[in-house]
């Protein structure tokens, strides 16, 4: 059996995840059946040298398509929405846009530095059809005299649920966009998925009402959201779903409650393949489109009721683990830009994110070269033991981030070497240095099962940090036999060459577990370390770090929640009034040249569990009348979204400062010690229960 | 001499229909973890799942429970004749990848016994409660239109659970539901002496192979009418007339009815 390491560089795009997913990881990508499909992508636009402004969509498209002409295959760029160009901020066009492109686009991007100037970053989405962006709504969606629009981006949204209805039985959902599922003949908001406006939902509710009772199974079957004749995950088919629970906490009301009538809902269901693949590297274009869609539709609602712009609060209860953790990942920057563009709006726009549930996941390690106890003093090397589980059907990734500063020319500050499980039977890789776009692959019988590359973003506006990404294939595959990655400990050896005192190397394992309600695919890999203590002498899980151990709990905050603008919410136990053990926190890293990071951790914590024994909080199951318990920072965040909506109705502010202010105020009234800032932010929010009914006698 | 009339006629769908329906087995399997407890409990019948809806307890309503049991026995005996005659293969005989979560019964697949029995009982219960509501009317009976939906939806859920479990095709539930609704109304007619019932059928070859089981397309519980669907009736199906009341069943029925006053 041939088994060898070879030198290799990026073949597709500038992002190692994209390179892997279109290259060696291609067969394991959900929905990869088509030979040369279109893909959604989130692009960061660079500057047009001719105008000095951000390059226009038209110029970008023509430049790529001109470069791609003459070679076989589809055009590089199928569609870029001019919608984003109309969002011009005070002076510049928004950098972030969503586009529909082919694999050739990424190929050209990897090869052509001039095109990299136009598009410094491109995040790969999923295979998709292509058509138009969101058009004007086909029918007006009058919701009544609403005062705020609550946007929810999630999975498994039960849009027929009575918690989202008016007293007369019609829906409070003005618009819902399911980003996957059957595309109706009349078109879809962005060339994929299906839009349901209020009129369509009301019509379906009526059609499915028998004996005065809505047949919700029939509703979801006819709507195409749970049709068992169709393939794909059916989030609303089970008794509980993440999105319904979250949306109830954010915007669910008893239909007779007049407060509900004032809150219109615009919701977006992400493609289930995006949710199923929790490494999350490909959700960026969908979330970016979803946020723009929610705001666009909110403006339509305002126009419809002749009220002028409405305040909008968007809840996005998703998380990933690996990233720069300084707010500069593409999705974080896109969310910040989105909020920034609309800051001048007469009414505010807020985004709420969870701080993540990975505190005890062992997915973070940090290497500091000023403490000899962590380093082999002689060789200045340290080993990351990346434990990859058997029966993992998805690719696994580790990101290793270096301190700010471009890599030295022709030299490296650190070098990296990979020893797969089973060494020495399996060969160890050569040392990989800081050569942008370059790295190594491990080939078994001609198939690449592992690839490690170094990248550095040369854009003037980027993270400014070098990064190694190590990607490996799944450890099991049920299709035709393929060479896979062995499970066990992958040893990533890091050798310090020129990093000095205080310069820290961070490593994160990317999220790769299986989300609520999905069949098991991913299994979470983690960093093993001999001195990592999981339990105290009483058998309780330890929540604090030992300075001697390179594997850390600190800094596992949701990797898409370290940006400047969103309100980020952790979880605490209502009864015990302590931070939930899973609730992740900072510290985060300052942005380049900034004196302090944008946040130390979450802005505040809300209830993630009613008590130690009462797991989770109660909110809607998928069917009207049902109540289920779900746990996590995912359910803490929407309680804050609800509070912000209330503030907006009252004409008050609802940004992260307001949330922190409320937490500070609530904390002052408490008798137990405040949680540490890195995990608790400004403190424990005391929010009105809403649907978060406590299950114990106080 | 007793003259027998044909009450129900059933024919077998084509092999292609069953093969087509395997996709449903694949998709419905996603609900296995969600429905596991119900499915395990319902292996040997599911009448206990109706009692919480109507508030019936054997110690307080023994005749109602006995009537339900009689209806179930009648359904069981009938469905087994059809299963034996039609000899349709179970899903796991088409593909080992169905891997049912419970043991597949040894008898044939179509019609589904769970569907037949549940819809027979559901129909009898609804008819009994309508009769009771016409009398005194209190308690749950006041909620009759809603209650009818609830009972029918419970029957449907039990039938669908068998597809989730991997032991039935949706078309088995369709055939079972049509048969069960017919048997239920026949039994209630014989009890009440209601003149005239319609002969009904399940025409397997006419069933669209890619269709799921949806009882609402077969029966309107509010209006108590069978909906004419291509594969359940033909224009020459007859309406039987005459005095069909069975004195024995009438006695039985009235005893059950008296428990609801």
Give the SSE map:
The complex is a heterodimer of chains A (698) and B (261).
Chain A: E1 3-9, H1 16-22, E2 38-44, H2 57-68, E3 77-80, E4 96-102, H3 103-111, H4 113-118, E5 121-128, E6 148-154, E7 173-178, E8 194-197, H5 198-207, E9 209-210, E10 213-214, H6 216-223, H7 242-251, H8 258-261, E11 263-269, H9 272-276, H10 284-305, E12 312-316, H11 330-341, E13 349-354, E14 364-368, E15 381-388, E16 396-404, E17 414-419, E18 438-444, E19 447-456, E20 465-472, E21 488-496, E22 504-509, E23 526-528, E24 551-552, E25 567-573, E26 604-609, E27 617-620, E28 627-630, H12 633-649, H13 656-668, H14 677-680
Parallel strand pairs in A: 6-11, 6-12, 7-11, 12-13, 13-25, 25-26
Antiparallel strand pairs in A: 1-18, 2-4, 2-5, 3-4, 7-8, 9-10, 14-22, 14-24, 15-21, 15-23, 16-20, 16-22, 17-21, 18-19, 19-20, 27-28
Chain B: E1 8-11, H1 15-28, H2 32-41, H3 51-54, H4 62-86, H5 113-135, H6 144-165, H7 170-192, E2 197-198, E3 200-203, E4 219-220, E5 225-226, E6 239-240, H8 247-258
Parallel strand pairs in B: 1-3
Antiparallel strand pairs in B: 2-6, 4-5
Helix pairs in contact in B: 2-6, 4-5, 4-7, 4-8, 5-6, 5-7, 5-8, 7-8
Please describe the structure with a list of short key phrases separated by commas or semicolons:
heterodimer; A: 698 residues; alpha+beta; Rossmann fold; Jelly Rolls; eight-stranded mixed beta sheet; B: 261 residues; mainly alpha; two-stranded parallel sheet; two-stranded antiparallel sheet; 6% strand; Peptidase_S8_Asp-AS (chain A)
């Amino acid at each position: 059996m041939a088994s060898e390491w070879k030198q290799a560089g990026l073949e597709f795009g500038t992002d190692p995840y994209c390179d892997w997913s279109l290259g060696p990881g291609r067969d394991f990508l959900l929905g990869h059946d088509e030979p040369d499909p279109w893909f959604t992508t989130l692009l960061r636009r660079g500057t047009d040298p001719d105008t000095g402004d951000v390059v226009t969509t038209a110029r970008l498209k023509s430049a790529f398509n001109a470069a791609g002409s003459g070679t076989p295959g589809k055009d590089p760029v199928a569609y870029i929405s001019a919608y984003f160009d109309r969002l011009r901020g005070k002076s510049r066009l928004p950098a972030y846009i969503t586009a529909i492109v082919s694999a050739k686009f990424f190929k050209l991007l990897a090869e052509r530095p001039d095109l990299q100037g136009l598009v410094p970053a491109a995040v790969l989405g999923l295979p998709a059809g292509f058509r138009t962006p969101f058009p004007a709504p086909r029918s007006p969606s009058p919701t009544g005299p609403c005062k705020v629009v609550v946007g929810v981006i999630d999975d498994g949204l039960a849009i027929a649920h009575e918690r989202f209805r008016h007293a007369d039985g019609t829906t409070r959902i003005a618009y819902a966009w399911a980003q996957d599922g059957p595309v109706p003949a009349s078109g879809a908001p962005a060339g994929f998925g299906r839009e349901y406006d209020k009129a369509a939902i009301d019509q379906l509710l009526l059609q499915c009402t028998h004996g005065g009772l809505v047949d919700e199974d029939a509703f979801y079957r006819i709507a195409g959201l749970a049709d068992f004749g169709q393939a794909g995950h059916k989030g609303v088919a089970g008794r509980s779903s993440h999105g319904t629970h979250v949306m109830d906490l954010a915007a669910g009301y008893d239909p007779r409650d007049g407060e509900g009538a004032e809150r219109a809902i615009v919701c977006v269901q992400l493609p289930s393949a995006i949710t199923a693949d929790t490494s999350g590297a490909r959700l960026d274009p969908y979330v970016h489109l979803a946020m723009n869609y929610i705001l666009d539709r909110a403006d339509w609602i305002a126009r419809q009721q002749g009220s002028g712009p409405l305040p909008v609060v968007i809840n996005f209860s998703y998380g990933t683990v690996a990233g720069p953790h300084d707010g500069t990942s593409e999705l974080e920057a896109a969310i910040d830009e989105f909020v920034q563009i609309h800051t001048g709006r007469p009414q505010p726009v807020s985004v709420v994110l969870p701080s993540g549930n990975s505190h005890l996941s062992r997915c973070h390690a940090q290497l500091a070269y000023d403490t000899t106890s962590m380093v082999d003093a002689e060789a200045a090397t340290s080993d990351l033991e990346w434990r990859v589980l058997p029966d993992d059907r998805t690719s696994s990734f580790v990101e290793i981030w270096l301190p700010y500063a471009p890599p030295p020319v022709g030299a490296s500050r650190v070098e990296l070497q990979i020893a797969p499980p089973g060494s020495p039977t399996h060969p160890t890789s050569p040392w990989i240095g800081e050569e942008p776009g370059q790295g190594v692959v491990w080939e078994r019988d001609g198939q690449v099962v592992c690839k490690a590359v170094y990248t550095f973003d040369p854009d003037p506006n980027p993270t400014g940090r070098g990064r190694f990404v190590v990607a490996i294939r799944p450890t099991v595959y049920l299709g035709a036999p393929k060479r896979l990655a062995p499970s066990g400990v992958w040893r990533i050896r890091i050798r310090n060459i020129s990093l000095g005192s205080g310069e820290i190397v961070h490593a994160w394992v990317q999220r790769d577990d299986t989300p609520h309600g999905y069949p098991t695919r991913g299994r979470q890999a983690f960093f093993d370390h001999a001195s990592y203590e999981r339990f105290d002498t009483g058998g309780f899980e330890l929540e604090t770090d030992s300075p001697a151990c390179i594997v850390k709990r600190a800094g596992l905050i949701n990797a898409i929640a370290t940006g400047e603008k969103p309100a980020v919410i952790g979880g605490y136990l209502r009864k015990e009034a302590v931070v939930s053990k899973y609730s992740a926190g900072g510290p985060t890293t300052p942005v380049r040249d900034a004196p302090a990071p944008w946040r130390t951790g979450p802005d505040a914590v809300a209830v993630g569990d009613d008590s130690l024994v009462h797991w989770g909080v109660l909110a809607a199951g998928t069917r009207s009348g049902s109540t289920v318990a779900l746990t996590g920072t995912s359910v803490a965040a929407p309680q804050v979204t609800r509070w912000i909506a209330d503030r907006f109705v009252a004409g008050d502010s609802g940004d992260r400062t307001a949330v922190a202010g409320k937490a500070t105020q609530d904390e002052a009234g408490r008798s137990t010690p405040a949680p540490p800032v890195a995990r608790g932010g400004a403190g424990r929010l005391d929010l009105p229960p809403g649907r978060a009914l406590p299950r114990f006698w106080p | 001499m007793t003259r027998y009339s044909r009450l129900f006629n059933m024919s077998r769908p084509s092999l292609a229909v069953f093969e087509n329906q395997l996709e449903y087995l694949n998709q419905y399997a996603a609900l296995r973890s969600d429905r596991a407890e119900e499915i395990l409990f319902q292996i040997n019948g599911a009448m206990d799942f109706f009692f919480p809806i109507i508030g019936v307890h054997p110690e307080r309503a023994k005749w109602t429970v006995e009537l339900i049991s009689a209806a179930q026995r009648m359904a069981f005996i009938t469905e087994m004749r059809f299963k034996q005659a039609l000899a349709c293969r179970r899903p796991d005989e088409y593909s080992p990848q169905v891997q049912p979560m419970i043991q597949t019964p040894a008898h044939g697949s179509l019609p589904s016994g769970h569907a037949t029995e549940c819809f027979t009982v559901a129909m009898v219960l609804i008819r009994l409660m309508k009769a009771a509501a016409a009398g005194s009317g209190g308690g749950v009976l006041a909620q009759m239109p809603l209650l009818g939906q609830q009972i029918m939806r419970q029957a449907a859920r039990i039938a669908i659970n068998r597809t989730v479990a991997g032991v039935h095709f949706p078309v088995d539930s369709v055939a079972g539901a049509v048969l069960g609704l017919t048997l239920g109304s026949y039994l209630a007619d014989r009890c009440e002496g209601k003149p005239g019932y319609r002969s009904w059928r399940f025409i397997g070859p006419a069933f669209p192979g890619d269709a799921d089981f949806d009882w609402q397309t077969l029966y309107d519980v509010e209006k108590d009418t069978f909906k004419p669907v291509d594969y359940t009736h033909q224009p020459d199906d007859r309406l039987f007339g005459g005095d069909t009341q069975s004195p024995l069943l009438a006695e039985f029925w009235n005893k059950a009815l008296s428990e609801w006053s």
